[in-house]
Structure formats: C-alpha cells, structure tokens
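Whether sequence alone determines local backbone shape is best considered at the level of individual chains. The sequence in question and its structure tokens are set out directly beneath this paragraph.

***
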Amino acid sequence: MAGFTGFWEAATAFPAVLFGFALVVVAGYWLAVLLGGVGLPGTDAPHGGEGVGSGESGGTGGTGDTGDAAGLRGGLAALGLGGVPVTVTGSLLVAIAWFTSLSGAALFDALWLRVLTLPAALVAAWLGTRLLVAPLRRLAPGEPGISRADFVGRVCTIRTGRVDTGFGQAEVAADDGSTAVVQVRAEGTDAARLMSGSTGLLYDYDPEGEFFRVAPFRLAAPDAGP
C-alpha cells in the first residue's frame, strides 16, 4: 500500500501531473482500439507525413485531413518523427515524457530540480520516439493515391510567412482537385521572393529531407482579347 501511495504522490506531483491527463487520453484511445470502437492507426487515422495521398476535393491534407492535421504531419516530419500514424507518434511522445517526468518527481524533492526535469522529459520524449519510429516506418502501410513525385513540376501557393533552407510549407493541387500541404525549401534570392500567398514552382524533391525545392513562379496573365 505504501508503494502505491508513493507512486500516486509522484504521479500527481510536478512535472508528471502535466502529462497525466494526456496519458489518460492516450490510454483511453488504445483501449477503444482494442475493443474495436476505433479504427486501427493507418486505416482511418491521420498519417505522420509518409507520402502524400489524395483526399476529398477541396481538402488540404493528402488524406482528406484538415489544414491543421496536414500542418501537424509536416511538423512531425520536420522533427524526424514522420512516416507513421500521428496517433502512434503522439502516444510515444506522451508515454516517454510522462515516465521521465514521473522519475524526476520520484527522485527529486527540490522544486528547482523538478523544474529541470520538464525540459529533460521533452528531450527524452523526442529522442526516444525518434528511435522507436525508425523501425516502425517499415511496418506502416503506405498511403494510396498521389505520390510525391507527381507534384514535381506543379505550381503551388506558399502558406507560411517565409521559406528558407529549413522552413516552409505550400499548398499544391492534384489533377482530381484535391490539395495537399507539403514541405518546401528555397535558398538565396528565391527564398527572399517567397512569402505567404506567393506562387511557386515545385521543381525537385529531396527524399531524405522529405521536402520539395521551390522557386518563385509568375503565372502568365490571360489574354485580354481583341
């Protein structure tokens, strides 16, 4: 009983309590998966940026997700956490962060040491998840629909305030009318001319960085006619 009391005190203490609610949500989700109330990740769940599938016409994500979901997938990919369903990545991040913070709450009584545990838990969650995601990518089902190569040579619209060598997103349309938010990069004068709302041309794809190289592009004005 004393052991449970000590565990409960650590779990409800700072910083473990910050991740406690998220852990309950994660546990509830996977329980629903086991009971059949929720589809398995990779079937109807948002994906983690591995591939660009076709979505419903007018959607913003490759799988018919909202723009926020597409942005989340892109953010995870930029952190090296793409390639598996977002639900899997998020579950790993929460579980590792909670366990690390729980250990800190159990080991340290001083508040300043527990405060230092919080950034340590976030770093540990990122590193641990990145290590675990790497082998899981080979098990994740591929997304049907449009491949990344299909977007090379297409015109896009920049959706971030800037584009440079390490940051940028753009929206590109497919033949079926669906749209996807993709990661883009640019250098030098090209980067200086690209901003939110600018038109760009996706001229190359980097499979290692999982981004497109983009250059400014001016659409030809329609003929005024006689």
Notes: Helices lie at 2-11, 16-34, 67-78, 86-107, 111-137, 188-192. Confidence is low (pLDDT under 50) at residues 43-67.
